[in-house]
Amino acid sequence: MATRHLDAVLDALPADVLRPAWEHMSLRMADRAIRHFAPSDMEHRLDLAEQRLD
């Protein structure tokens, strides 16, 4: 349920707002994964990042 709500909020944002914000957060998640987690966590974060990049 929370995922659907968040998707609806993100879908309502204009592309020129969502895209740079999503890119920035994706880079932050990747950096954190590299610094603090196992390599297998990186795949999960990259998959998440790619969901809204088109």
The rough form would be described as: globular
Largest sheet: none
Mean residue pLDDT? 90
Q: What ranges have pLDDT less than 50 throughout 5 or more consecutive residues?
A: none
The helix-strand sequence is: HHH
Task: Provide the β-strand percentage band.
Answer: under 5%
User: How many strands in all?
Assistant: 0
How far apart are the termini? 24 Å
Q: Oligomer, anyone? A: single chain
Q: Taking Cα atoms only, what radius of gyration do you get, to the nearest Å? A: 12 Å
The amount of helix comes to over 70%
Q: Number of DSSP helices? A: 3
Q: From the helix content, strand content and strand pairing, which structural class follows?
A: mainly alpha
Give a verbal description of the structure.
The protein has 54 residues and is mostly helical. Helices cover 83% and strands 0% of the residues. It is built from three helices and no strands. It has helices at residues 2-12, 15-36, 39-50. Helix 2 (15-36) runs antiparallel to helix 3. The radius of gyration is 12 Å and the shape is globular. The model has no long low-confidence stretch (mean pLDDT 90).
